[in-house]
Amino acid sequence: MDSQQFADLELKTIISLAGMPVQKDLVNPRKPLEMAKRVRVTFRPLPRNYGNQIVIKFREKLENKLKEHGVQVIPWDEAAELPDDLLSKVLRTRKVKRNIHAVVDVKRDYSLTRTFLSGIAERMYGYLRRPDMSVMEILRVSGWADDFTARYVQDPFNTQIVTLMPLEPEFANQSTTYDRRIAIGLQNLIATMSVIIMGIAPDRFSLVNMNLSDSIYLNEGIDDFIRNSLIPKIYAPIRPPVLNRFKKGEYDPSESVFPKQLAELGRLLKSTNLFPQGSKFSEKVKRQSHRDVVEKILEGRTGVSYGFIALAEAPRYEGPVTISKAKWNKLIKVESVDDDMVRENKEGRWYVRTVIRGKAIFQQLPDIWITTSRSGSNKTNLDPNSDIVRIGVIKGKLHLETPKGVDLNRKDIRPSFDTYVILAQALAAALYTPDLIKNGLPIIHFHGYPDPNWFGKSEYYAGARNPSLPCGTVEAALLNYSAIYELANKNGNGMKMLCLVESDHGVNIMGLDRDYIVNRLTDGVDKGHVKLGGTYLPDLKKSSLIQEQQDDKIEQKASSAN
Fold it and tell me: ∠210-212-214 over CA atoms, to 5°?
């Protein structure tokens, strides 16, 4: 069974074991053209007298290219309908239907009249504001005078806003630092209430989203961009893990070594500058109504931060870790899982059938706990009593534990956007690289990439040529899970360090020894071989393509010999 067949069969099963929301007809995340068939996009009409011809021409090209790739482009008059409420009828405010996945618009300048009316609307919101208001209630009270596209959608959780605007010279300048680019990008995302911002120039274009990416593409690469970047982002929008999916509890940081070890890992990484200071929405968003809308959509989060650090604790087993095929045949099928690759014993422990280097293995799915930085925290200065949470998969159910005495209603106590990815990494490591995780596994995620020449003996990377799926998505978790399987299947147990590449997002570095990884990253940063931002992503893609071609030749020779 090759890795792609394995991904089709095994990944959905394993992720479903973790209590993650997997659709039965989930598209394989390596097949963006299959995603395209399910994506519905509309283009909002250009504002009157809009004169930027560079943006207009790119908009036309984008629409045509989306159609060529199989995306359903729905005319605005068909996608946006006039609601029944009186205010919408008076103002003739159309609402984009819930089954539209994205609205493409251009950045619109505010007139003096619109600015004045927006000020009045914001004062009204200040009087009527309630903590329990929904996104649509907030927009009805405060957004009637605004012209941002988000107010024209029925479901802001399902319909993403993609805004086109001129590419800012500072953003496009190669000497502009990554954190400065992200500051520019965040400001535009928030000002336009968008999920994706694209900066357009005559020969190139950029993309920024809440993944905090700073990608810049040449126009001749637009087909690859649409297929492997834009379509996946629209198909699988960034979503934080919803708290009601977790069984909640508390833990005492003083009774575990992992919170202290994680805080120490953060301190050791400080000198690398791979974790810049995050941004609070209160500092970036002037209007209270806009802050409230963003926080509602992000499930209470009050800002954004860079990456995460985590320690996957040693897997926990009950009874034999592996069993014989004869014993496997006596186990019963799990009714809740539509796949015969999972069975359970009389005690309710689940076993899975996996294949490593052609050999079938029947092994127990362990309970997994991961100690990780909370969303929005300063990763290099973690307080074990307030900045570290535990996430887990216990007998197929998601668990979340917060430090003892910390109120879960506090807005900043939330698990990482990357929770599903972290869980998938730990589960894959337990099943396919058990030596790597048997004493705990450090995982470091930052928004940058290493030079492919940085990797040394027993250090491997995978995933560079995958579609760029956002954090917080099950699809991203599947790709990370698959990458660990592929590295283990190819390289065996002699791996010191693994690097899982996520295009337009960053990398996940993990390995056997914490100090070894920290020293390698510190040395890489000092010598310029590891950088924030997308500098080295094209090199990783190119190097991965060459390696794939070499592997194909080896397989062809082996097949011919047989």
Answer: 125
Residues 309, 189: one domain? no
> 424 and 544 share a domain?
yes
DSSP assignment of 359-400, as one string? EEEEEE--BEEEEEEPTT--TTS--TTTSEEEEEEETTEEEE
Report which residue type is found at 545.
L
Pick from 474, 484, 537: nearest CA to 511: 484
Query: What distance in Å separates the CA atoms of residue 2 and residue 391, rounded to the nearest whole number?
Result: 31
* 430 and 289 in a common domain: yes
Longest dimension (CA), the chain: 79
CA distance 450 to 534: 9
Rounded to two decimals, the pTM is 0.89
Note down pLDDT in tens along the chain; length 562 residues: 344 343 433 445 454 544 444 555 677 888 899 999 999 999 999 998 899 999 999 999 999 999 999 999 999 999 998 766 655 555 567 789 999 999 999 998 877 777 787 888 888 888 889 888 888 788 778 877 777 888 888 888 889 999 999 999 999 998 999 888 988 888 888 888 899 999 999 999 999 998 888 899 999 999 999 999 999 999 998 877 877 888 889 999 999 999 999 999 999 999 999 998 876 766 677 788 888 887 777 766 666 778 999 999 999 999 899 999 999 999 988 776 656 778 888 888 888 888 888 888 899 989 999 999 988 888 999 999 989 999 998 877 789 999 988 876 666 678 888 998 999 899 999 989 999 999 899 999 999 999 999 999 999 999 999 999 988 788 888 889 889 988 998 888 789 999 999 999 999 999 989 999 999 999 999 999 999 999 999 999 999 998 888 877 877 777 677 6
Q: Number of structural domains, the chain?
A: 2
* Phi, psi (degrees; rounded to nearest 5) at 4: -70, -45
Q: For residue 36, is it within any domain?
A: yes
Same domain, 157 and 298: no
Q: Which one of 208, 235, 262 terminates a domain? A: 235
CATH number of the domain bearing residue 480: 3.40.225
Both 182 and 58 in a single domain?
yes
Among 210, 235, 260, the domain boundary falls at 235
HEC profile for 537-559?
A: HHHHHHHHHHHHHHHHHHHHHHH
Mention every residue, 6+ apart, whose C-beta is less than 8 A from residue 104: 41, 42, 43, 44, 59, 62, 63, 162, 163, 164
Task: Judge whether 16 lies within some domain.
Answer: no
193 Cβ contact partners less than 8 Å away, ≥ 6 residues apart: 148, 149, 150, 161, 290, 293, 294
Query: Would you say residue 440 lies in a domain?
Result: yes
Strand partners, 206: 199, 216
Do 224 and 371 belong to one domain?
A: no
**Host domain of residue 49:** 32-108+148-235
52: in domain: yes
Is the same domain home to 510 and 479? yes
- Are 443 and 551 part of one and the same domain? yes
Single out the residue of 31, 147, 68, 153 nearest to residue 103, CA to CA.
Answer: 153
